[in-house]
Amino acid sequence: MTIIVDSRRINSFLRKTRRGHVLKTTHELYLRNDISCGSKLCQLCTNETKILDNKVNNGNQLIPNGHYLVVDTNVVLQQIDLLEDPLFTNVILPQIVLNESLAIYKRIRTLISVPERKFFVFINEFNQDTYILRKAGESPNDRNDRAIRKIVQFYTEHLLQKSTGSNMSIILLTDDMANRDLARADGLHAFTLKEYIQSLNRPELLDRLVLKEESFDLEKNIGKRKEIIFPEHITLSEIQRGLKSGKYLQGTYQASRENYLEANVFVQDSEKYTQLFVQGYRNLNRAIHDDVVAVEILQETEWATPFSLVIDDKDDDQGDLVIEQEETGLVVPGSSSKKQASCRIVGIIKRNWRQYCGILQESVAGAKFHLFVPHERRIPKIRIESRQAEQLKNSRVVVQIDCWPRCSRYPQGHFVKTLGQLGDKDTENEVILAEHDILHHDFPEAVLDCLPQMPWKIMDECGVHIADVTHFVRPNTAIDLEARERGTTVYLVDRRIDMLPVLLSGNLCSLRDGEERLAFSVLWELTPDAEIVTTTFHKSIIKSSAAMTYQHAQSVKDDQGMQNDIAKSLRLLHLIAAKLRKTRMENGALVLESAEVRFRLDTETHDPLDVINKELRETNWLVEEFMLLANISVAKKIYELFPECACLRKHPTPPASNFDPLIKAAEAKVGDFFKKEKHGQQQTGHLCKELAESLDKAVLPDNPYFNTMLRMLATRCMMQAVYFCSGFQSEGKSFDHYGLATPIYTHFTSPIRRYSDIIVHRLLAAGINADVTYPDLLNKHHLQQTCNNLNYRHRMAQYAARASVDLHTQLFFKNRCTDEEGYVLGVRKNALQILLPHYGLETTLFLRDENGKSICNYNEEEATQTIKDVTIRMFDRVTVQISVDRTNLQRQRIQVRLVKPPIDGFSVSPVTKTQMSLDGRDVDDISVPSKRIKLTKK
Q1: Is 476 helix (H, G, I), strand (E, B) or coil?
Q2: What is the pTM of this model?
Q3: CATH code for 817-916?
Q4: Domain 5-210, CATH 1.10.260.40 — does that match?
């Protein structure tokens, strides 16, 4: 394309450096006269990019004829939820606005990419008719507002002159009142977004308006209080000075799941504190889960003790009054040894608000304001203004937070959209995906275009190509970028959300028996004692002899009558794996436990029919040992080849204090246990060896499940394993993987479902000259950013999987009432945490009567609860009755009631056969055809 340069602008300005020097910066800008206006009405703009159509009036009473909309920055940034409504079409996005909208750039790009929406980006900063210079003394914001008004003026005159018979109007949408009034003074059409949508026959759109904090007149709208509740947040400049002087610390705010008046702040870059405790409304000071906050450490005399209560924010609390007793009653004096280093929130460094799923709390009929109850318990209730509360009372809805005024107990927000009917499985699945930010959209056409044509076969020259996934997923292609963003495959009970299209994940990159497949091979030469002599890495083409499930492989290995090559190979691999495993255990590797179950689903409805405990066989850990060995071998190799940009995975050593609950619980049953004081003195290669040995010895003959529960508690003492770039690891800190007791580790063995493995494959391939490098691969800053996203996606995938299990467990018990044996896994001041091994379920048994009054005597030192003459301890075996509490249709949940030990006036009678009915039928009479049953993959 020929570029016509009509004029040139040279802008110069002075800039002062940190050292006090003054630098002159010059920008040379070439302006053009061939930039298209994007309108199909225009007869003179020759550019083929014409998107804006001859719009028919959408029912707006302000402008009777067709019109285009020009939006300014504040509308795009603050009202993106409204702009995403299909009502808004033929929208002109100035380049200057797009440049300032990086926070929501992906959402804007999505709107632009949908042809039906007709969102057009107008390059105003290079157009000679719309570019303007900044005036002396004019702020950048005022200059940009003037530039946007210039665009409106340009389009008005341009279409009038260069179109035939058009009466198209150009409308400026702005929530900046000064910008609106200046536009009107120039004779332009300008409205606030509220003014524009009020003239439409769409009253529900008003619910989606973002209102600024100053627009909330709480005295008028709420009428209950106007006094200040919370301290004022200090400014960012004050925060920066305080961080520099050490007066304040920066950290990530993590709200408690069990007590909405408590939280922890995980401190960054502090030698003394890694975690600080926060308790009480005023100290929490309007921080929301995942916010980055500035904190001030309290005097040691003000440090608080976590309250051993499970507290839910009251369902019937309208949130207009702060009950002082709730706050002051939670400050537990306790002994100095139980107090935790405490702080108060003084300012917000970065808000990490997102859209939240939940329900509207029932309120007074005709009320204008309503409380939204988030699905995520760590998020406070949100006050929204809604005109459709009656229609939404049985729906799952999405809400966005706008602000949190100092005089309101709850943050203020706005309605975004409805997900569906409350209790509907598809709706509840959508909640899980949305709450955990799981990317589950269909793969775009650009991604599918990267796939090979079928039928596909290995060509002769493929012997030197990258094996497995990286052969098909080339760097920075559409399929690579999509996989990088998704990060991992997500496994829910009734579905799998793939990182890669199924053609790769289920076919071309899946090792099938009897079919040739590209592979990346790690080969070892081992001694009879499973000691490694040599390790080599190769691109290869393999043809698998057989594809077997773990169960099938186990049966082949155990059947001594089978003496074919596959059976003999399995037995040999088992011997080697056993020696490898023995060596790892001797080095201190931990064997931990977690409750994991599988559901048997109806193949048509995907409803749960039964719950099955996951069974682990020898072949499970046979494969695991060789996977671990491959990962460790590759980790050593890529770090040797690329010490500054190796993608590794570490599992940090937990702080000694993390083991306190585990030690206390174990010593109450088995006496002497793990000595945490020696924990930090272990050498690399012997990490957690004493813990592993202590766990092995902690057994109770009369309670075979005790050791399993102890290992579950040990799992909760651990830190989160994370991906990281070796070049960003602080000097002096190790790469240790604590749980596996290895000094270096990575992920190499699952490139189909983990993007980290794709990176590792590319590094290894480049290191052995099987492929070339590319800039991003050896850019440690880029790699660390990718690792941060992978850590986030991996964590969200885990949470989503657990939420899916919880959902299907609730669906399973929806029409059931059954007794089940369980164990006490935690003793709280007002409740017991009950583990039900058969269902992989941990529930809360509240110790209160029908009126909500406590009926127990709690002994914190011994971790016991005494109810009348019965004392219940950690790890005690109990029987509970499981059902679904449906008294509140909006918040149905699993509930358990005590059956055994029997306590007069509290325990319930065992269920009878007729009580265990399903949809009105006796359980024993229910038969399910085998053809309609399948096992989910976990």
Answers
A1: coil
A2: 0.82
A3: 2.40.50.140
A4: no
